[in-house]
Structure formats: structure tokens, C-alpha cells
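Weekly structure sync, notes
Attendees: PL (lead), two postdocs, one rotation student
Agenda item 3: pending single-chain targets
PL asked that the sequence for the first pending target be pasted directly into the notes so everyone works from the same version. It is reproduced below exactly as submitted, 325 residues in total.
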Amino acid sequence: MKLKLTALFIGLLAIIFALLPWLFVQVADWQKAFNQLISENLHQIQAHSSTAGLWLIFAAFSYGVLHALGPGHGKFIIAGYLSTHESQLKTSVRLSLLSSLMQGLVAVAATSIVVVILNLSSKYFKLSQLWLERSALILLLLLGLYWIAQGLKSLKKKQSFRITSIQSLPKQIGAASPFRYEQGKASQVQCSCGHQHLPNDQQLKQSGDLKSQLLVILTIGMRPCSGAIFVLFLAYMLDLYWWGILATFAMSLGTGLMLSFFAALVRYARNVATRLGHWYGLAGSNQKGEAMIKCIAGAIMIFFALSLLYGTMGAVTGGAALFGG
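Predicted structure, written out during the meeting:
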């Protein structure tokens, strides 16, 4: 049964990759249509239409879903993280939603400060977008370096101390002993006072994952969605700025939910790959293989970060068009 499900999943992935070029073109057309719908509903709200507000939120949410379907650096980063880190489904969903919410917050904050509060021209707003984009790419560079450091640390990590004879253990291996014997290994977890003075491997791993997750959220969130900027600008010009903010967060929610679905697919694909590795007798090299994949993923992140940073040096509009938002 598991073999059939795995084959079905691989077949579905092949179909999805085959349809990607058509899907990207179609998503771009749908986004234009929903942009027009958002504009129409904002004008209807200005004309005191009773239902236009609900339609605006629906259109913004739908735009967010479509935005997540298209090519984007958010999916690239989340896929990289979930491919190289063990994570539960709720962690994947939380990471996707927080990243999208961060994008909405940055869009609202940037527009509010530059346009609403300081009342600067669009030229200065484009300049602020450029530096936000550069900040996101610098964070992407740091994320790649951090993953490589994690991978190299795992590769250099020594094997746990193994017990060859039961006589080598302390005589009192009970409450007074600082050692615990488990599956042929002894590990120091606490001293005789009953307190843990050093973090164990699981706690260190969780700490590293939290740092990676924070970098992922900041890297994705620092580059605001172009659709959100459009909504906020139009709403400000129509004197409906609060409606623009509501629409932006509806857009972020749509993007976050779609990214959560994508994250669940990536997580399941990783589990399938791990299971296939066990079937082919690769379980023993699992830890070293994960460390190598983490180094490779980090190197790819660094390559794209440097390439796109170089692209931002030439044009005021920024150079991350490759990943589209």
C-alpha cells in the first residue's frame, strides 16, 4: 500500500512539473483580473456600495492564493528549509503563515511611513523598496551561510561514546550517577544534584531550528508583495487607506494558506525520499547525507542571493524579478 501511494505521489509531482509553464502564464493572467476587481471594488466602496467591502476582501484573498501559485522566492526558501530540516506539519504551517504575515506587515509599514506619514514621492518609495529587497537578499545570504555552518558542524560531529563493557559504567548507575545507558551509549544528562547544567542534543537542535526559522521568516517577509503595494497605494489615493490595510492582510492570509499547502507537499516529499532511502539501505548514512544536502542548499541560497544582489545594483526598481515576489 505504501509503495502504491509513493508511486502515485511521484506521478502527481511529475504532472505538476509538466504543467508548471502553463500554470505560471495562467496565474499571471488571473492576477491581472483580480487586480482589476480589487480596483473596481475600491471605487465602489468610495461610492458607498454596501457589498463592495466584502468583495474587496474576497478579491484580495484570492489574489494572495494566486500569488503563492506563481513563481516566487518564498516557495524557494521554504522548500529549501523543509528539505533540509526535520519539522512537524504544524511547524511548516506556522512558518508559512508567519512569513506571509510578515510580508503584509512590511508592506503596510513601508507605505505608511514613506507615503502616509512622510508624504514622500513615489521615487523615494521605489528607493525604499529597493533597500528592502537588498535587505531580504542579504538575509538570504546569511541563511545560506548558516545552513552551510550547520551542515559542516554535523559532518564534523563525533560519534556518541559507546560502551563496550557493562563494567565500564559507574557502579551506581541509578539516581546518583550522571550517566544514562541507552542502546549501547552513555550520555551525561545531569549531575548528582539533579539539575541539567548543559543543553542536550535535542535542545541544541531545536535552538538551531528556531534560528533558521526566524531567518526564513525575515528573508521572505522583508520583500513585500507587489500586489499589496498596489492595493495600499490605490486605497490611499481614494482616501480608503484602512480598507487597503484590511485587503493587504486578507492577501497575506491567502498567500500563507497556499504556502502552507505547498509546505505540506514538500514535507511529504521529504518523508517519501527518507523512506526510499531506508528501503535501499541508506539509513546508516542518513545523518551525513542530510548534512551534505544542507551544505548544498546553503550554497544554492548564497549563489542566488549574490546574483540577485548584483542585479539590484543596476536599476532603481530592483533586480529580483527572477523570483517575482
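Discussion points:
- The chain has a mean pLDDT of 77.
- Strands lie at 179-182, 185-188.
Action: rotation student to compare against the earlier draft before next sync.
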